[in-house]
Each structure stands twice: as structure tokens, then as C-alpha cells.
Amino acid sequence: MPCGLSHLVVLVHQIGCGMRQEAMAFSVDYFFVGGNWKCNGTRESVKKLVADLNAASIADDVDVVVAPPFVYIDQVLGSITDRIEVAAQNCWVGKGGAFTGEVSAEMLKDIGLNWVILGHSERRQLIGEANEFVGMKEAYALNNGLKVIGCIGETLEQREAGKTIEVVAQQLEAMRGSVNAKNCEDLARQEDIDGFLVGGASLIGPDFATIVNSVNAKKVAA
Ligand SMILES: O=C[C@H](O)COP(=O)(O)O
């Protein structure tokens, strides 16, 4: 799905049916893999994961971004290879202030982050983030110098036309569930798949490296 903004990476996800996944869609010749660690990890497990990623061989022409939980971002920034960028999993909709528990875009920039994930399906479903709110977050983050990994679902038009299930089913059929080290090459070869936002498999260094390097399967197929 063309986004028209060089700093906005658009992901597609489905909400409903108890299932969700993100698949990246670009209009340009580009491959990107994001590792969303979600609410997982300890200092020790993060240390091991970063060591595994630092030791991994990563193909040249793929951008890699990992998103640790907030409390481990500084640890990751201080230890991960320059080859891999770091993202936050969320940020506040505007400037900081009396917003207990929130983290502002300015704070992310201040600690050296350039990326943030916004509108993830889990935040839409579990936290109740609405489209407009997510849109305001994205605009604020972009205006404050962050690159945004924006997650979106089916369109309002498709939903109003009663096509949500059809669209979700087609997307699931194309993706066959979460991306992992076993299915990543098949998925990467698909013409309309140009990258992944990886959840569970991003917590296993060698598996994440295999997914990152699935760009090679795409090049062979091209
Ligand atoms: O952020 C990643 C997506 O929610 C997919 O997660 P998963 O790969 O664990 O299914």
C-alpha cells in the first residue's frame, strides 16, 4: 500500500476474529524487517538476544529495526550493532506533560531513537486506540523527526461493505499466519510482500536473522 511519505512505513493488519498479523506493503523496491519484542524480556534475555543479533550475518539490502519494551531501549541502544536500528513500540500523541505512564516523541528522540511503532493491532484492540487517535500520533511523531511504522487494518469502505471477513481471510491466506524462520522465504518471494514486522520469532536471534535474510530468496525469485 503506497504511503507517499518516505518516513512512514505502512503495515497492514487485521483486527477481529481473534487474529491479527502485520504485513508490510511498499510501492518501492525495498525490503524491511522489524522485530517487535512486545512485552517480553529481562535484562539477561535482552543481553543474549542482542549478542545473537550482533553475531548474525545480515544481508546488505535490508533495513532492520527492533522494538524492545521501553525499559530495555537504553540497554539495546548501548549494545546493539549499528547495522540494526531501534524503535519504540508506542509514544504519546503530543507534547509531554501531565500524562502519567506515557512517553513522548521528544523523549524518544532525546535518547537517540529514530523509529516508533504506532497503531499496532494489539493497542487498537486491547487499549482501544481509535483510528483518529493513531493518526494524530503518527502526525505528531513524524513532525518531531521520528520514522513511523504505522499499522493499519481493513478500510472503512471495506468494513461498511461487509467485506471485512473476506479481506481478512484473503490476507491470512496470503500470509498463512505469523511469519517465522520456516515460512519467511516463501512469503518473501510473494510479489506483493516487501517485508515483515515479526513478533514471536524476533525473540530468537538466529530465527530473526533467517527472516532478515529472506530478502535473498526474494532477489532470486525476482
Ligand atoms: O508485531 C508483530 C505482529 O503482531 C505479529 O506478531 P507475531 O509474529 O508474534 O504473530
TrEMBL record:
GO molecular-function term, one example from the UniProt record: triose-phosphate isomerase activity
Keyword DNA repair listed: no
Pfam families in UniProt: TIM
GO cellular component: chloroplast; cytosol
Keywords attached to this entry: Isomerase
SUPFAM superfamilies xref list: Triosephosphate isomerase (TIM)
Pathway field: Carbohydrate biosynthesis
GO terms for biological process, alphabetical: chloroplast organization; gluconeogenesis; glyceraldehyde-3-phosphate biosynthetic process; glycerol catabolic process; glycolytic process; primary root development; triglyceride mobilization
Similarity-based family: Belongs to the triosephosphate isomerase family.
PANTHER family: TRIOSEPHOSPHATE ISOMERASE (PTHR21139:SF2)
SUBUNIT field: Homodimer.
Protein name: Triosephosphate isomerase
